[in-house]
Amino acid sequence: MGEILNYGIIGCGMMGREHIQNIALLPEARVAAIYEPDEIMAAKAKSMAPNARLHATLAELLEDQSLDCLLIASPNHMHIAQMQEIAARRPLPLLIEKPLFTDVGDAGRIEELQEGYKAPVWVAMEYRYMPPVAKLIEEAQTATGGIKMLTIREHRFPFLQKVGNWNRFNRFSGGTLVEKCCHFFDLMRLILQDEPVRVMASAGQEVNHLAEDYDGEVPDIWDTAYVIIDFAMGARAMLELCM
Fold this sequence. Notes:
The chain is α/β, with parallel strands linked by helices. The chain is built from nine helices and ten strands. The protein is globular and about 50 Å long.
């Protein structure tokens, strides 16, 4: 590894390009290689990192010997297969966008990767690093004398449009509570300093995307939810989501 840390970017849609912008702010890092199969997205990424090499496949990118680390920002349902290919070919240090996988049946594949992947893997749970949130996590237990109830509320705009509209369907995204709300479940664990033991939820698709049609298929992604989580040491947390 030289003085400059060379990143290989896998997937350059909305989040991938945001990572390219952030890497450009680091004086000791650069985007050296890109794999993005969509020509329009690849061109946009290249305009942001003009010195980066474009590769036609993930396998080709992994042969690029200049790379020090990798970043996966592809659609959610592609993450685990790409991670497995990286593990088999060239297990470099890896930053991977959440979630690691979208089907609970793939948990065993993650366990195998956890046992066999020889380099660091970091899942991009970014909310915990936002300065106000980091301060809350640091001081919450002391300031309250011990938290018994925690509520997180998110009222926000609907999902944005992404390449191929993959985020309109549960089978590609993992569902709203995985794709969007995993950040909040992560924060609950950190703030309460505990692990969940029981989950209750009511959620559904009330308004958003019902008039959309993609090759004869209407989106099934949820836009509202209440989730209550019981934690091992007795605290309870609730998420209220309205999109």
